[in-house]
Each structure stands twice: as structure tokens, then as C-alpha cells.
From TrEMBL:
The protein's name in its UniProt record: Pr6Pr family membrane protein
Residue intervals passing through the bilayer: 34-56, 63-84, 96-118, 130-150, 178-199
Signal sequence bounds: none
Oxidoreductase is among the record's keywords: no
InterPro entries: Pr6Pr-like (IPR049713)
Record keywords: Membrane, Transmembrane, Transmembrane helix
Length: 211
């Protein structure tokens, strides 16, 4: 079963890299301003790590890191599902027949969640993790705003707009609305992080699919 778990984790890593094809193959580095691209690339690296550790009985990634990236992947999928407009298939690359956004926003979140549920031991998450996982949000927002101020026509949008998401578009929203958006998304981060911890504590400590 250990080999099956390792194979699955390598497959999840491959899905992550399929979803970030624009960055590493097409060299569209401005795409790295997207939260999804940043977190999906990191998840891909961590899934390679955990796959190799599973296969070789090595040191696994720390629980907080695996939980963090699983949470971010799920959040990216939910935001894409409920907030973002649909991708234009005419300009979005495909990998193995699927749009890259489909890999990043649909396949990867589900695959990462399944991996965490089935192949990770549980009852390892601590309540403060939920606050720690939120820390990336203000850092990411600051990165977007500073980058936009320094390079106002750098993309990633085709017209040069530096804001990857409308809910972070400062000139369009103003500071008050932007601040409210940040608070709302911070609340979502915290709530989903707490839900993940509750699920982790409710599951058996032993790996559900024994390796």
C-alpha cells in the first residue's frame, strides 16, 4: 500500500505542475502573482517530497505545512468556483486535454484533500495552526499592492492590469472596500482552517489507508 500512496502523491504533484504550465513551460512569470499559481507550485514540490518520503520511508513534511497547502488549494478552488469568472478556453493553455485552470482549480484541490484524508495520519493539527495559516494572506495582499505600485502595467492580465483579482483591485475598489474584502477573506481563511482542524481531530489518528 505504501507504493500506491507514493504513486498517488507523485500523480498529485504532476497535476500541480500541469496546473502551473504557464509558468514553468511558457515562462509567463507574471502569472506568479496569482495566489493559485504560488500555492499550487509549492504544493507540487511538497507532494514530490511526501511521495519520495512515503516510498523511501523518509522524513515526511511537517503537519502544519501539509495542512497549510491543502487548505490553500481548497480555498483557491472555492474562490474559482464561487467568485472568479470562467476562464476563456480560447486563450487558456491545455495540458492532456484539460485547461490549466481546471487542473489548478478543480483537480488539484480535490486530489490534495483526498491525499490528506486517506494517506496522512491525523490528530496532529493544533488550534493555533488556523491563525498561522492566515499569515500568508496579508503577506500576499501586500505583495500584490506593492508590485502594482512599482510596476503598474506588468500584468498578469492581457491589458497589463497588475491586479490578479477584482477583489484586490485598489483603483477600482478604493481602500475602504479593499479593507473589507481583506477582512472577509481573512474570515474565510480562519473558518476553513478551523474546519480542517476539527476534521483532523475527528478522524482516527492512524492513516485511513494503511501504508
Amino acid at each position: 500500500m505504501r507504493f500506491l500512496a507514493a504513486l498517488y502523491r507523485f500523480a498529485v504533484a504532476a497535476c500541480c505542475f500541469a496546473g502551473t504550465y504557464e509558468v514553468w513551460h511558457l515562462h509567463q512569470y507574471s502569472s506568479l502573482v496569482y495566489f493559485t499559481f504560488q500555492t499550487t507550485l509549492l504544493l507540487g514540490v511538497v507532494m514530490l517530497w511526501t511521495g519520495a518520503a512515503t516510498l523511501l520511508k523518509g522524513i515526511q513534511p511537517p503537519a502544519w505545512l501539509k495542512g497549510c497547502l491543502t487548505l490553500y488549494s481548497v480555498i483557491a478552488g472555492l474562490v474559482a468556483l464561487f467568485v472568479l469568472p470562467a476562464a476563456d478556453p480560447a486563450i487558456t493553455p491545455r495540458v492532456f486535454g484539460l485547461l490549466t485552470v481546471t487542473w489548478a482549480h478543480r483537480v488539484v484541490p480535490v486530489a490534495a484533500l483526498v491525499d490528506w484524508l486517506l494517506f496522512d495520519p491525523h490528530r496532529r493539527f493544533k488550534w493555533p495552526y488556523a491563525l498561522g495559516w492566515m499569515a500568508y494572506l496579508p503577506v500576499y495582499v501586500a505583495f500584490v499592492l506593492v508590485r502594482a505600485a512599482i510596476w503598474p502595467h506588468s500584468g498578469p492580465l492581457a491589458d497589463g492590469t497588475p491586479y490578479p483579482y477584482d477583489f484586490l483591485n485598489l483603483p477600482m475598489l478604493g481602500w475602504s472596500r479593499l479593507g473589507l474584502n481583506i477582512l472577509e477573506y481573512g474570515g474565510v481563511f480562519l473558518a476553513l482552517g478551523l474546519i480542517l482542524i476539527v476534521i483532523d481531530r475527528a478522524l482516527p489518528q492512524k492513516v485511513l489507508v494503511a501504508s
